[in-house]
Write a structure and sequence with these properties.
heterodimer; B: alpha/beta; eight-stranded mixed β-sheet; two-stranded antiparallel ribbon; 14 strands
């Protein structure tokens, strides 16, 4: 099948592989339609890409910061480059993929707004997941104990954290509105990591997953 | 040729028999310079066996001073093959599974046509009458060899440094013949700094009176001093300051005090002199000129109006680019340029920067993460290539 210039080829049928995914990655995987083209930024050990490649015949690419992560990905037969969201996205063409995924990474980027722009330039849609800094435990740590929060999903002391741009779920809604990004879907995880229909997600959601569309 | 499995080559003032095969192509081969050369000979070694449908071939491209003796004891130096750690049974390039081909580049001095070969016009060694060749010409000769073995599509092409340039050239010139490519510690073009170091080496050779304007073979002379200095300079560029410090520091060579003279007081001097001295015994000075020139001329983007990405547009090849953190000759930034160009055309690429303090020569070593990357990439590619994959049928058509 001929493919348009500057676009990745559609996925190839691979043998099924059973892969255990973190809950948030499982939810992201469920959003993605079979045969899509996917770029996973901050793909870690490649579990999500591996799952998508083998079980949804997705054509996947990844970007990962650590040599160890890239080694694991390449060892799984995935196409992953060592790089980061701030500096390497600029080299990808427009509309290269159907989904650009940024899971648990946006808070560690230098310029989250620009990264978000890049995601929706490269991808027809973007999926962004992040830890919610508005969660009541975070608020409690700061307001009652007077200390920077160290929780399960934010497991670093302030002086060693790679997370430099925290946001709350409401902050993220606001940024999307400001950038004229359409929110196609939201999913929230409670503090047990279970997906729930939360009444006050900004208070009780520990993680959020946003499916974004160009407007 | 002495028999099917050995050949005779000329090294400096003597003729030597080395193991290996050689194929002769009578039809002249067009060169990038616009002229033709012929007949040409390509000497090569193979490891492992070719399967029935000839789909398990891997071509290894050697670096500037490398040769076809990848994983066996070198017939002249008696040292292990230059990539013995990478290539062999059970190694990342597994000769139990794959048929590995490595040929000596044209322009070299290990049996393929080069400046030591007899010029058919005069019967005397070509010397400086040998045409200037390019990386593209080297690969053109390799393609002839591969075709002569009845192989329509290579499973993989691998190489480091100048070998990496050839890998890129293979992928750009003959994308339909390459399923996977592993360019290592290389660059899309030779930089001004790279050219500058090569020029120092060439000038050292040409300044040696025994070079005789390239006709030293006829004069029965060997430009030992020049070639050896060229090697010494180049060798420094293959290492790194931390590697030199770790290996030698300021330690003295077999003496307790400085001699206040110009003997090799320091271990690093003694080491370099030894490198230069032994190199001369296995390499030809004119070959050094021609091969360094080929590298200098390498610029993949040039044929594509300066757009490197265009060289790879619609490439079906799966790439795995590998760089080393302390390599300042072909730094990570140069390797990343290849990656970014591939990204720009949505080509299939993986990339790893291996942490190492060994400098450029790290690609010859077993640095942590390096062999694992090659091993993992090859296995991942094999899964797609050998499981009745549609690409393969396309390639064999």
């Amino acid at each position: 099948m001929a493919t348009a210039i500057g676009k990745m080829a559609k996925g190839k049928i691979m043998k099924h592989r059973d892969i255990i995914l973190r809950t948030d990655l499982k939810l992201i995987a469920d959003i993605i339609e079979p045969d899509s083209r996917v770029l996973d930024i901050g793909c870690g050990d490649g579990a999500l890409l591996d799952h998508l490649t083998h079980n949804k015949s997705v054509s996947g690419r990844g970007i990962e910061l650590s040599q160890k992560g890239v080694n694991q990905c390449v060892g799984r037969g995935l196409s992953v480059i060592q790089g980061n969201a701030d500096t390497d996205l600029q080299y990808y063409p427009n509309d290269a993929v159907d989904y650009a995924i940024l899971s648990q990474t946006i808070q560690a980027t230098h310029n989250p707004r620009h990264v978000l722009e890049e995601l929706l330039r490269i991808g027809r849609r973007a999926i962004v997941s992040f830890p919610n800094f508005g969660h009541w435990r975070v608020r409690a740590s700061l307001s009652l104990a007077g200390r920077m929060p160290v929780t399960k999903s934010l497991a670093f002391q302030w002086y060693e954290t790679p997370n430099i741009h925290f946001c709350t779920i409401n902050d993220f809604f606001a940024l999307c509105e400001d950038m004229n990004i359409k929110i196609a879907k939201t999913l929230f995880l409670d503090q047990k990591g279970q997906q729930k229909n939360l009444i006050f997600p900004n208070l009780t959601g520990q993680q959020a997953i946003f499916l974004l569309d160009r407007n | 040729m002495t028999d099917d499995n050995s050949l005779e080559i000329q090294i400096q003032d003597k003729s030597v028999t080395i193991p290996g095969k050689k194929v002769v192509f009578d039809e002249p081969m067009p060169l990038d310079s616009g002229i033709e050369i012929g007949p040409i000979e390509v000497s090569y070694q193979t490891y492992g066996s070719l399967n029935a449908d000839k789909s398990n071939a891997i071509v290894i491209c050697h670096a500037l001073t490398g040769d076809q003796f990848v994983s066996e004891t070198h017939p002249i130096t008696k040292k292990p093959g230059w990539w013995a750690m990478m290539v062999g049974p059970g190694k990342p390039v597994d000769t139990d599974k794959y048929f590995v081909i490595c040929s000596s580049v044209i322009g070299g001095c290990m049996g393929s046509t080069g400046p030591v070969s007899p010029d058919p016009k005069t019967g005397k060694p070509y010397g400086l009458n040998f045409p200037v060749i390019t990386i593209g010409d080297m690969v053109r000769a390799q393609k002839r060899l591969v075709e002569s073995l009845g192989i329509k599509k290579l499973f993989c092409v691998i190489g480091g440094s100048m070998g990496g340039m050839q890998v890129l050239q293979w992928a750009v010139s003959y994308p339909e013949m390459v399923f996977a490519a592993i360019p290592i510690a290389t660059a899309p073009r030779h930089t001004a700094q790279n050219i500058a170091f090569h020029e120092v080496g060439r000038q050292a050779i040409m300044a040696d009176p025994n070079w005789c304007h390239g006709a030293y073979l006829e004069e029965n002379k060997v430009p030992r001093a020049g070639l050896s200095v060229a090697r010494m300079t180049a060798h420094v560029t293959y290492l790194s300051e931390p590697a030199l410090h770790r290996k030698f520091g300021r330690r003295l060579q077999d003496r307790k005090n400085l001699t206040y003279g110009f003997d090799a007081d320091f271990q690093v001097e003694s080491y370099l002199r030894h490198q230069g001295f032994t190199f001369v015994e296995r390499f030809d000075a004119n070959s050094y000129l021609y091969i360094t020139r080929a590298m200098d001329y390498f610029d993949l983007a040039e044929e594509h109006n300066g757009m490197l990405g265009d060289a790879f547009r619609d490439s079906p090849v799966r790439f795995c680019v590998i760089s080393f953190s302390s390599d300042w000759l072909f730094p990570t930034s140069a390797n990343r340029e290849i990656v970014h160009a591939l990204n720009a055309v949505a080509a299939d690429v993986s990339f790893v920067e291996v942490q190492s303090d060994a400098g450029h020569d790290a690609f010859l070593l077993k640095e942590p993460g390096f062999h694992e990357t090659v091993d993992g990439f090859i296995k991942g590619c094999a899964e797609r290539w050998f499981n009745g994959h549609s690409d393969r049928k396309d390639g064999q058509g």
